[in-house]
Amino acid sequence: MATAQEYVHPWHVRYHEVDQQGVVFNSWYLAWFDEAMSGFLAHAGLAYADLVAAGYDVQLVRSEIDWRAGVGWGDPVAIAVSAGRIGTTSFDLRFEVRRGDEVTCVGRTVYVVIATDGSGKHPIPDLLRKALEK
After folding, report:
1. Torsion over CA of 133, 38, 82 and 28, rounded to 10 degrees?
2. Which of 9, 51, 60, 125 could be bridged to 79 by S-S, CB 3.0 to 4.6 A?
3. Distance spanning both ends of the chain, measured CA to CA
4. Is 115:53 a contact under the CB 8 Å cutoff?
5. Rounded CA gap, 92 and 86, in Å?
6. Rounded CA gap, 103 and 67, in Å?
7. CB–CB of 104/68 below 8 Å?
8. How far apart are CA 114 and CA 2, in angstroms?
9. Which of left, alpha, beta for 100 (phi over 0: left; psi -120 to 50: alpha)?
10. What is the pLDDT of residue 1?
């Protein structure tokens, strides 16, 4: 079930994120997605610390990234996040990195809910499901 909610996380490319080719090194996109994911949940009313305090966390199990254009040092970008599929124990988030009106990158990350007590995979708790479905 996809939702209509979109959260946009602003970002300015930092000097240390740029490689010798003058563009953001690929691994930084996953870090940006993590930052934007926690912003997305907070925007929907669920602080990540509250999820963990309730005994849950999420674990990345799959990520896909398709680049269309590079972004460089100092570029202001926006990372748009929206919920995609929401299952029983997992969900995915969709990401777009935008520089102005240009979409420079699209991504999808699949997360599985786990219990913080070490007991493993867990059904998506109501507090997380409500945030994803907003």
Report:
1. -160
2. 9
3. 11
4. no
5. 7
6. 9
7. yes
8. 22
9. left
10. 37
Which residue, among 78, 71, 111, 72, has the nearest Cα to 96 in the 3D structure? Answer: 78
User: Residues 66, 107: contact at Cβ < 8 Å?
Assistant: yes
Q: What are 128's two structure tokens? A: 């997380």
**Owner of token pair 């994911």:** 37
Helix (H) or strand (E) segment spanning residue 53: helix 48-53
Task: Supply 11's token pair.
Answer: 């970002």
| pLDDT > 70 fraction of the chain, expressed in percent and rounded | 97
- Quickly tell me which residue has 């240390």 as its tokens: 16
CA pair distance 11, 61, nearest whole angstrom:
25
The number of residues making up the chain comes to: 134
